[in-house]
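Fold this complex.
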Amino acid sequence: MMSAYAEGWKLVLGHFKMWGLFYVCNVLFALVAAYPLNGFLQSTIGDSLAIMDSLPGFDYTFVTGFLNQYGKGFSLILNQSFLVIGAFLLFSVFLSGGILEVFKRRKEDFAFAHFWSGCGKYFFRLLRLMIYFMVGQGTLLFLAWTCFKSLSGGLSPFVLETDRDWVNAFKIILPFYLFFASLFMMLHDYAKIHIIHQGKSLLFQPIFQAIKMVFQNFFSCIFLYLLNFATFLLFFGIYYIVRNLLNADTMTSILLIFVVGQFFILARIATKLLNLGSATVLYQERLRASLES
Amino acid sequence: MVILPFFAPNTIILNLKLVIGGFYGLILNICTIFAQDPALSPRTANYDIKAYLDVKAHKITAKQTLYWTNPSDDTIRSLQFHLYYNAFKNTESTFLRERNDFPSFLKNSEEDCLKWAWLEVQKMVDEYGNDLTPTMHYIQPDDGNEFDQTVLNVPLKQAVLPHESIKIDMDWESKIPNIAARTGYNKEYYFMAQWFPKVGVYEPAGTRFAEKGQWNCHQYHSSGEYYADFGVYEVAINVPNEYVVGSSGSLIKEAKTAARTTYTYKLEDVIDFTWTASPHFVIQETTWKDVTIKLLTYPHHTHFAERYFRTTKNALEYLDKHIGVYPYKTLTIVDPPIHGLFTGGMEYPTLVSSLSFCFLPKGIKTPETLVTHEFVHQYFMQMVASNEQEEPWLDEGFTTYFEGRILDHYEGEKTSTIDVWGIKAGNIEFNRAEFLAMDNPKIAENNRWSWDYNHGGYGKIAYNKTALWLRTLEGLVGLETMDEIMKTYFERWKFKHPCGQDFFDIVNEIVPKNHGNELGENMDWFFEQVFYGSDICDYSVANIYNKPVGKASGFFEDLNDCVFMTVDSDHKNTYIASFDKDSKVLKNLNKQSLVAQNSDESLFKSEVVLNRLGEVKLPVEVEILFEDGTKRLEKWNGQERSMGFKYVGESKIKSVEIDPEQKIYMDANFLNNSKTAEIQITGIRKYWLQFLVSVQHVMEMLSLLV
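Structure:
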């Protein structure tokens, strides 16, 4: 497991170009979504002292005033950004095929040709897989919600003895939900790896094989997953601490916060690649072990 | 005491007994008189109630004695009573007809049928032994709805002469509702508000709007609250032993039997009496000066005591200083259980109900906000007993105004309502935003009766809008004058029934006294707009102009000599032209973005243009900041649609701000109150980059699903 983790890091650090590509895509899509806001702000409140007065921190009067006066225009920008985010989601499906193809060929030198061929070849399969797992996650959420309602006597406050019932029910349900949701995500990752390695068009076999592999190597898979998650938390913790040291009240600090934010985005992309990379390594090692045995 | 003449030996002995007895009675009376607190109010309606709570049938059986004094010069031939519980008797009551949503418990099932409520007066007898029961009948003075039984009219067989009293004994029974409109029961929790037959208010001629003496006893409407006379309450509540009782007033007696306990409470000079009971209540206590503060919570909420006690003491201290003394010895706070949610957030004499939730973080200050609001109601309308149904703004608006002052003072102007995860909101700004967020803030005027807000707006206009214009009034007259107004209003009208005009009269008395004619002869112009009108106030800075002062150009004395002309307009199209003396032709026409050649670059003509976008006209201050740091404070009476201020000087205008201290708090849009000569790039960058990064994070988060 630790070797898979270490190899995962090697994959990430050894594929700077890919890492950089994902970051650039992220920035470009975000710019498309966010750029209209720049002009909107300039034309509405750009020359108001209120915008400067609101710099030191969250200003409720400023925010509510802005939404009250200009909320309709802002909601148009928001709606557009949802579309862009949706497009990015599809694009991520496209790119994930390339990532996994590259990681499958981890012993070879990186080549964009392999990357793009993987993107195109596996796009529809990974898209269908994403839909299946989203339905699965939705079902899981529904089940958790149903359990919560039955544990807390329903959502009506009038049947509860105390509001603690809601809190207690939530405390019971949440850990289970998080565990199973994470398990689903892990199965999703391994199913993707199966698809890429075996090149099957139908998805149910890779899904079942992923389930089989995960349960046969349960602790390794879980701990690797937790390790990757802990890595993400570490980066998040650093970002949180650094971010809270800065106050966005001057141009310098605003730009600094932005740069710090970009480093965190890079870190998030890295942990995503780490997750797929280390899982691929673990998969390949287990596959080799099972073939040898 | 009677003293008879001494005539005969046995008479002597008899007289001696009488004298001794009389002397003893005199001593007793004197002691009693000195032992009684002096009456703070007229004590028009006094009640002695003995109530039995049946927790299985959810009923109250009671014997009630009303001692009622005629406050007028009229002869009263009938009494009118509120029977509030009959609002929940069936779907045809005025209350339920006016409600848009059906209460959740009122469904058409046999089990749920048990949850309807009623109050029935079974017998009513006057002190002369006259049985008034046969002639009692329901009336509907507001809407003529024959099915509404929330007002009981009782013709008297013996009229009550001016300023005379009458004693009425009655037996009544009620079926308690399953918590509707802040009263009722759920599970083992009982909150008993508006629970007994309450006599209406007889308004003598000259009281409020009464041109002649009249009963003011409205039906129970779905919007609007209550109105009652002052009196002394002595209430004995009989409950099962395991029930813990909380109540208005002080406990004066407790009598326990094997299965049940009778708690007797007394409270003087109040307009109402409320109590609560549950086997699960935990009582905690503290004191502030000589006031005992009790908190009743369920076990999981006992940790809220610190927040409740701290906030209540803050409110006591603040109002003691800024309005007047809280005269009662007790204050009970009820924190209802979650299944009694709808009884929270309400005020009764010396008893308030709040709300708290275990699952909300500490930074969501619901308990603090509610308990402060409900406590301020002890002043407006428990002591200054305005008519909540006809003039809801007169208590709710005043209470919201002081709620904001108290909370912002003790919890921070920007954090007194919400302070969690970086999101902060002060109470005053929160209430302002609530009003302005209405779909149509102009939907109704402030002076409507509570059930006359036909298309909404009751809450936001009675509460929030009133508080906004009170705060604006404070901004115009200053805090010191505002406090003087409020103190005077309280002192003059406590334990009485004022109307809105009484408040306006006090404002018109004090403001000219303190400010002369600065704000006009009186403040009627202000109330005409903010109270009787429904328009919006909105001032904006339209434009800032800064132009270099050009030297005089053209032909002057010498027609053969032309001084170079400068033609400049705005920043984008500025021309330099020269006039050739010989050919007398305009030459060298160049577009440049610089000041023209022969202008005086050391002087600027600057102008500010202000607009009045709203219909409300208020005097405003305008602060102009120049690039060299100097400031000018101008005053505008706010009457015209637009106004300009011009300057000539060595420095350009950098920024303009209308009402820099936000005295005109009801201005609907603070964002257009200021303008800068240059775009504020820093501010734009901050919000734009934050939005950009947020979108990046959302995209990365969603890509985990891929």
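DSSP finds nine helices and no strands in chain A.
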